[in-house]
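wait is this the right file?? whatever heres the structure
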């Protein structure tokens, strides 16, 4: 089914049968709970049979209930408040086995990213970065950590990198004022999507610069406007966004760029090693860069 699930449910409620209307009403009012219920549990909660729930999903155009549930989980992430996220985490993980549950959840996100990311899109993004005159990187709020990590390593590897750090619209455009059609902007955003990052992607498009979106789905606001979208599965764990899969994708991007620019990267790190040694940046027994 195409379109926003919540909008479809709201518009079709008058035409639903009594049982289907109960399901729709509950989903619209309690989407944070419904998104993680089995068909049996949802039916029990609203007072209809499991088969009625399955038929409801089919009537909406889904292959089955799991497909509708997945769509509901994807859409509801942009609506949840921080308090609702905490409540969802209690329902999903309970109070015991949190460590194991969260790590298994992250493993699944990486697996899905590997399965669903198009290798040709990844290769095309690498080419855009390698051939860019200047590279701008932007991520706001929780995505700022990802932008900072990517920028940290790109600045060691390349000489033409700017990480956009802004809290206002005027500062955003001031930092993008020198961008031109030979440049590329890497925008990073996950639910709830940052309006500032969307504005930056739109600006890059308006002036003819290339853009790469690192986000969770093709329907995200930045993926729709970017030249290339690299998709990494993200999900909330409590009020915290799970950014393990996006970080893994960014690691792959860093490695791919280093391979493409092997000679330049090698020269840069040879110089850095001399500087680190001379100024005793690290302890003699090692240390992380």
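ok assuming it is, sequence goes like this
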């Amino acid at each position: 089914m195409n379109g926003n699930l919540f909008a479809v449910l709201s518009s079709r409620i008058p035409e639903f049968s009594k049982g289907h209307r109960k399901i729709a009403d509950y989903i619209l009012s309690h989407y944070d709970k419904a998104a993680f219920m089995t068909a049996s549990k949802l039916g029990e909660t609203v007072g209809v049979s499991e088969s009625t729930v399955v038929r409801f999903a089919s009537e909406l155009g889904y292959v089955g209930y799991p497909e509708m549930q997945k769509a509901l989980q994807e859409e509801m992430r942009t609506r949840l408040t921080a308090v609702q996220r905490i409540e969802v985490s209690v329902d999903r993980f309970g109070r015991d086995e949190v460590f194991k549950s969260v790590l298994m959840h992250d493993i699944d996100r990486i697996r899905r990213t590997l399965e669903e990311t198009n290798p040709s899109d990844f290769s095309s993004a690498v080419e855009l970065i390698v051939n860019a005159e200047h590279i701008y990187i932007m991520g706001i709020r929780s995505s700022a950590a990802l932008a900072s990590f990517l920028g940290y390593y790109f600045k060691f590897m390349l000489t033409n990198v700017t990480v956009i750090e802004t809290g206002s619209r005027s500062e955003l455009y001031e930092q993008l004022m020198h961008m031109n059609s030979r440049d590329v902007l890497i925008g990073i955003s996950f639910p709830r999507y940052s309006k500032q990052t969307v504005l930056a992607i739109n600006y890059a498009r308006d002036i003819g610069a290339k853009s790469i979106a690192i986000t969770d789905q093709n329907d995200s606001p930045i993926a729709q406007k970017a030249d290339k979208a690299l998709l990494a599965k993200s999900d909330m764990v409590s009020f915290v966004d799970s950014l393990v899969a996006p970080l893994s994708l960014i690691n792959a991007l860093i490695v791919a760029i280093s391979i493409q620019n092997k000679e330049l990267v090698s020269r840069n790190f040879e110089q850095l090693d001399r500087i680190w040694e001379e100024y005793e940046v690290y302890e003699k027994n090692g240390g992380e860069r």
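The CA atoms of residues 216 and 231 lie 5 Å apart. so i think its the right one actually
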